[in-house]
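User: Predict structure, ligand pyridoxal-5'-phosphate.
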Amino acid sequence: MALAIDGGTPVRSRELPSVMNSAGRTFGSEEEDAVVSVLRSGMLSAVWGTEAKTLAREFGALTGAAHTVTCSSGTAALHLAVAAVDPAPGDEIIVPPITDMGSVLPILAQNAIPVFADVDPMTGCIDPASVRSLITGRTRAIMAVHLFGKAADIHELRRIADDAGVVLIEDCAQAYLTHSSPDDEAPLVGTVGHLGCFSLQQSKHITAGDGGLVITDDPVLAERMRLFADKGWPRESGQRAYLSFALNYRMTELVAAVARAQLGKLAGVVERRRDSARRVCEALRDVAGLRLPDIGPDHSVWYLPLMLDDATRQQRDRFADALTAEGIPAKAGYLDRVLYVEPLLRDQTMYGGSGYPLRGVRDYPDGLAPVAERLVSQSLITLQWNENYTSDDEADIITAIRKVYEAVMTP
Ligand SMILES: *Cc1c(COP(=O)(O)O)cnc(C)c1O
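Assistant: Predicted complex:
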């Protein structure tokens, strides 16, 4: 069978449900009613309204965390977390190079230094051994990213953080309701570290367009984050005081109302994603050179990563392009390049051209994180996943992957 990329007939011509169209979202009358009722109340601000406060309580009940702070995006959530750590200029925060830049930008915004650890070749998540080797007297925090919905080795990272006396931040933007180990009694990610950050951006499991949440059991960190999200203004005191450096990162009531309706659907979304990904992975187990994740409670399948460990870069790139042409959108490497190669960090394009706080202090040469570089440049392909896939959609995904594998990877 000729590949669609070479002019053959594609496996499917209908678009798959995706987070970019209504067929791949879970919006219904719950969200519509919530928005209308906020509008009719006349109060759209979370400072005086009730929706964001209720969302915080509900997310706390879902995760078991003592405190939840709502904010305007996942990047804002991570900025609140970094600001709560309160690094001095030049302090270091360890972070993986395969993630959204939203993990790294808050570190730079607080004039701290991102230190890139390497990743586990099986999952792409930050490698605890690499983290341990990078701890210095200036390390203030470790940021773990639960990549594609798979739990990083978060209990080991917590031990490392505790040994070093630093804060563990969990970036859970891709990992709602992910358990920290394959045991479904294990705690949820976001509750193992000191701070867990979530996103409500369009591409995530649940969305309100944009929005963010941070959870913590620490009342001091929670209060710092509330202040940082609201201009340093201690609203509950009744005074107009400005206690600390801060921004306005407030969530709006409309976002909170939609997020609350979405939250009621989250368990079902994650369960359906797990079930369909498990069926697709099982059906492809016999494809020798294709490595697929084990889908258990420690994976909430934001994306499905495929790894082609024996492929050349050319084969990997052609695989992704060919799969896309068959009607199954696929992205080679997830990122175009590891984050420390981006102009922001390579050319230090910040703060009036000064490059502060990096210039003359830290650079990021090729080869810094070789496992991450190899995943992005040579072996990793990501498929967006969706809770609304039908059995026909799953069958098309399986057929297309087999077809492309045979054409691209078998001599
Ligand atoms: C989406 C995402 C972010 C940023 O969230 P926004 O809401 O887009 O600001 C940060 N980290 C990871 C891992 C993400 O996937």
